[in-house]
Amino acid sequence: MNTSLNTKMNTQRHLRLPYGRGSVVFDPPQSPLVKGGGFSGRVAAWAVACIGLAASSATAATLHVSTSGGGDCSSWAQPCSLSAALSAASSGDQIWVKAGTYSGPITLANGTKLIGGFNGMELVASASNPTANVTILDGGSSDRVIYSSDDAASTVVRGFTIQNGKDDGMDGGGALALENSGAIFVQCIFKNNVAAYFGGVLAVRGSSSPHFVNCKFHDNGSGSGTSVQPMGGGVMFVHSGTATFTNCLFHDNKAGEGGVFMTLHGIGKFYNCTIAGNQATIGDGGALFAPNGRVVVRNSVLWGNTVPSGKSGPQIHNQYGYLPSVKRCNVEGGFSGAGNINSDPLFVNPGIGQLRHSEYLSVQGRGQQLGYSAGCG
Questions:
Q1: CA 40 to CA 62: how far, in whole Å?
Q2: Half-sphere exposure of 219 toward its Cβ, with a 13 Å CA cutoff?
Q3: For 213-258, how does the pLDDT look when each residue is reduced to its tens digit (9 = 90+)?
Q4: 85: DSSP letter
Q5: DSSP labels for 264-292?
Q6: DSSP letter assigned to residue 196
Q7: 330 CB-near residues (< 8 Å, 6+ apart)
Q8: For residue 201, how far is the Cα from the chain centroid?
Q9: SS3 content of the chain, % helix, strand, coil (to 5)
């Protein structure tokens, strides 16, 4: 144990995002990594304020969905199908989705809240429990799962497992295609999504500014390129715009280059994230690869990401353009930036995705001050 480091971290103020039961995520022994990202069944004050899970306004509707739905969406006794609810929803409405598996693709309705994790008896949105009531959006290994175009930040997707998405085209985004979208994704699990070229999970284009909070990304991949032209972004490809990730876990994702992230002209921001065990299979950037874009990383752990022999940047690689801004992070091998450390995070059972830190060594264990507001933006 590094006593001086531990003392330093204990004396600094730490940021807290009170995201539900047992998930004030920056105090040991809990972290955003316990059993898959600090997910909790319920949503507390910060999430209610930021993503509008309070009771609907007098003018907004709540639409109820189940896998067997054929009703008018008005109640759990009259649930409708997911496609019917999305077609009927207007800005400000909430769509409550009962546990089960729903086939994609779907297109988000601007300004609505799409919320999974219900058992079909709840009376308030904050009672949803995506851990107990698993709600799946499935691409069937043949298509994307979600399209989001020109959606405002009031558009929210919360509490879903989004899986088996696939994109065979050059646009990328096996699970999500985001064009000029500011949608927010909360407490979602993204797994087993693939793209032939870019962004195993998501592709961000235009003036998009999506935000992902308390999400987990694992076993996603992209890149059918060659050693001459490896394709990249096992999780995400940010062509343009800005994608922000807060309290997220990335593990066991892979791509030709950029096992997690690749950008050309966009920006990727990572706050309080753990990025571990990801892989570039052909080229550079085992985790983050920014050949001509910006990467901002704060208070995060990058560890155990790999590249092939002779390639560069197992944790972070910048070929040219803007230099990555990395501060108060634990980066294997070290990385230039204020407050960065290079100290084994001592993950517990990393082979099965339980990346909880067994000691207080990581910067995330005591949450050094970020200089980042935990607001709604």
A1: 23
A2: 12
A3: 999 999 999 876 655 455 889 999 999 999 999 999 999 999 999 9
A4: H
A5: SSSEEEEES-EEES-EESSSS-SSEE-SS
A6: S
A7: 300, 301, 302, 303, 340, 341, 342, 343, 345, 361, 362, 363, 364
A8: 10
A9: 10, 30, 60
Which residue has tokens 């960065």? Answer: 340
| Cβ-contact 131, 39 below 8 angstroms | yes
- DSSP 8-class letter at 135: E
User: At 182, is the secondary structure helix, strand, or coil?
Assistant: coil
CA angle 345, 350, 351 (to 5 degrees): 155
Cis-peptide into 350, omega within 30 deg: no
Complete DSSP assignment for 203-261: EEETT---EEES-EEES-EE----SSS--B-SSEEESSSEEEEES-EEES-EESB-SSE
Yes or no: say if 311 and 337 are a contact pair by the CB < 8 Å rule. Answer: no
Residues sharing a CB contact under 8 Å with residue 152, sequence separation 6 or more, in sequence order = 91, 110, 111, 182
Question: Residue 176 and residue 169: Cα distance in Å, rounded?
Answer: 13
DSSP 109: P
**3-state class (DSSP) for residue 156:** strand
Structure tokens at 285: 């950037």
Alpha-helical regions (H) of 124-213: none
Each residue's pLDDT tens digit, 132-179: 999 999 999 999 999 999 999 999 999 999 999 999 888 899 999 999
Query: What average pLDDT does the segment 79-107 reach?
Result: 98
Residue 51 to residue 94: CA distance in whole angstroms: 11
Closest CA to 287 of 241, 309, 318: 318
End-to-end Cα separation, the chain, in angstroms: 37
Long-range contacts of range 319-323, CB-CB < 8 Å, 24 or more positions apart? 319/284, 319/289, 319/290, 319/291, 319/292, 320/291, 320/292, 321/290, 321/291, 321/292, 321/293, 321/294, 322/290, 322/292, 322/293, 322/294, 322/295
**Beta carbons of 280 and 258 less than 8 angstroms apart:** yes
Distances (CA, A) of 306 to 36, 38, 239, 255: 21, 25, 23, 11
